[in-house]
Amino acid sequence: MPGWKYAFSLNREAVQAATPPGTVRLIEPAATIPEEGVPAQAERFSRYPLPTPDPADPLNWAPWRKLACISSVSLYAFVSNFISACIAPALPVWNLEFPDDQRKVEELMQFVAYNILLLGFGNVFLVPVANIFGRRVIVLISTLILFISTAVGATTSNFVGILIVRCFQGFGSSASETVVPAVVGEMYFVHERGKWMAFYTAALASGSVVGGISGGYIAVRMGWFQVFWVSAVLAGLTFLCAVLFVPETIYERGAHCLPIQRNLPRPSRYWPRTPAPYLSLVTLPSMRMTLPSRFRYTGELDPTYTWYQPSSSGDLSSTAVTPTRLSKQVRSSRGTGVANFNYHPYTFSDSLKFGMYRGRIKYQFMKPWYTLRLPATWIAMLQYGGLVGAVAVISTIGPQLLILPPYSWGADTGLLFIGALIGIILGAATTALSADRRLKAFAKKQDHGYAEPETRLPIMLPALALGTGGLLVFGFCAQYPGEYQWIGLQVAYGMVAFALTQVPSLWFSYLIDAYNQLASDCFVMICILRGTVPFIWLLFVIQWIEKDGYLIPFGGFTVIMGVFSLLIVPILWAGKRMRIATARYVVGNQ
To answer: Which of 129, 318, 414, 547 is the most buried (most CB within 10 A)?
Structure first.
């Protein structure tokens, strides 16, 4: 029976031949192994997940609709982080704007800390609701909350009121880091996700940078309240775009209603070392029992040597399957074949609808916590949380540092974020250019044409090293200020921003590829730590700096981030074995 002991007892050849959830055939055998004397065909990349014939299937949407949707949700991610970060360089203006309500720096930093905390913990509620009622309704509600709370902040002039507004802003921003990557994953095939996830994470990271650059200028030259008015305009635009261009992307195509692939080698190939892997309809009763009879695979099946594996064919007409939940316009007869269903075109008015209900409320609220049994969830949440914490500390401490001698930048303190902007551009470009290319190249090298989620992960090794080293460089330059030390501060921030752009992009793609519909639940746990780590760091970093200077605190952050970074090694070494060990849970909870 598949499990941890079983997965780690397999030899290398058996692991390579195995097809647990997440392993898909990206290249057809005819494209990878041409017959002798026959010229090689042009490579054909399989489309996975397998699309249905329904135009309402997000995988079948027109390119313009996909582009409009991903642009709108990326705008949401950008604006959410813009609003979160723009107040940090504006904090020194508080005591000038409100002389009767003087506050210490550590008190004002609560505006940033509690916003980040709610941004993470808000997903404990929002993601289960999105899984029950659909992505669209949650994106609309979240953007509306973000807009209303920001507009209220523009008319609030007391400390507690602003703090409450910042909490609601964080809650309204929550879905931008969990529901949105799920939306991206549901629109694109496996071999397309890398570049579009890089596009999304670039928008996510650049929001903080642009907010950091502009927040100080707006507050100093236009006033404290204008920070909220500018943010309210952006939030309103985001809500409008969400209403018009973000359709529902959850589509029940029947996760286990696909043909079973039977191309694994027999155990004799591995005997006597280790028997061949098996994960079949017999060893997965939860899948077998929940499968509607009209969708069951009725072909010849040897359960001893078969893994659950979706069909890899790229021919839509010959292998597409009928979805388990059919829209109103679908049915023209009661037959079971795809040819017996007619689908109306997916119009703009159809894209504006919502009203899905999937039930199982208690289960949906508990499911994110169950994903803690998946090792990749822990590693992703620690690395992403550490990088967000690093950026939060730098973006808050940096402007406070540059406003003092020998720099005395005044309203120009936001220029510190230019280094981060350069790092984000480089991180997004390298990820977009290399992630999908590496996945395809790996599949072409394999005889079986399989694509593995772990293939993209080595790309993040330099980014993790840069992000970890950037913390130490920033601490050193802050500890020993000088006329040109601001250059080191810029470079350090750029190193961390590069990592913040690339690492979550690759992890989001990995989780979607490996765990499919469970990915959004994994994102909940990731964002909880993403909110907790910066919150804790921001609460005590000022006191630590006042006591020991900059080098020791940032040296401590470097050690912590270094430990988090090393956790990538087990995934690179045994990531597929871990997926084999957790296959029953992943398949049974789609």
So the answer is: 414
